[in-house]
Design a protein that fits this description.
The chain starts with a strand and ends with a strand. 0% of the residues lie in helices and 52% in strands. A five-stranded antiparallel sheet has the order 9-8-7-10-11, with no helix packed on it. It has a five-stranded antiparallel sheet with strand order 14-13-12-15-16, with no helix packed on it. It has a four-stranded antiparallel sheet with strand order 2-3-4-5, with no helix packed on it. It is mostly beta strands. It contains no helices and 16 strands.
């Protein structure tokens, strides 16, 4: 059990018949009336976001979750299969539980959030940035360089991202997995 004084970003609650993670919270003390805590909660099973207000001091049930390192092995009809990096145990999860499945490639390291009491996987998160190699993109046309011009490029995992005109086939780039945006070139030093 925890009270609203224990709230922090990332805390998991067993609330309203589901597992919810606090994305953000704000303690509010109005001039009149009791204090309260305004929160934004994310459902760990389906990703829904809910705004909720708790009266200050109210007790809520916390859930114990663990973030564990896994490596992506393969995708088949059953789902995506991952192997724990230390115990070599394999689990299969559904695509909807992965934050950016289009950027997964064999051997990718991820973190899977697991409900510690039931050992059920909840969410699979890729690193914020991944390294990728451009496998196809149209060549830039000279004189076609208006400010911030972008073109589509296919990367080695099969996903398509927008990149600046100067990027060519074979270049290594950083891609933000949260927004699917180009994050910069990677030099070969």
């Amino acid at each position: 059990m925890a009270t609203t004084a224990d709230f922090k970003n990332g805390l998991c609650l067993d609330y309203n018949n589901g597992l919810w993670q606090i994305v953000e919270f704000q303690h509010v003390k109005p001039g009149k009336g009791p204090a309260f805590v305004r929160t934004k909660l994310k459902n760990l099973r389906d990703g829904r976001v809910l705004e909720n207000t708790f009266t200050a001091g109210v007790r809520v049930e916390t859930a114990r979750v663990e973030r564990r390192p896994y490596q992506f092995l393969f995708k088949d009809d059953m789902g995506y299969t991952f192997m724990h990096n230390e115990t070599f145990e394999q689990i299969t999860i559904e695509e909807r539980q992965i934050n950016a499945p289009q950027f997964l490639k064999d051997g990718s390291n991820v973190e899977i959030t697991v409900h510690a009491e039931t050992e059920t996987p909840l969410v699979c998160e890729l690193p914020a940035f991944i390294e990728a190699v451009v496998t196809y993109t149209e060549p830039a046309v000279k004189g076609n360089t208006s400010t911030n011009a972008m073109k589509e490029a296919t990367i080695d995992c099969g996903a398509t991202v927008k990149v600046p005109l100067f990027i060519e086939i074979g270049e290594r780039i950083k891609v933000d997995t949260r927004t699917s945006e180009y994050g910069g070139r990677i030099s070969d030093k």
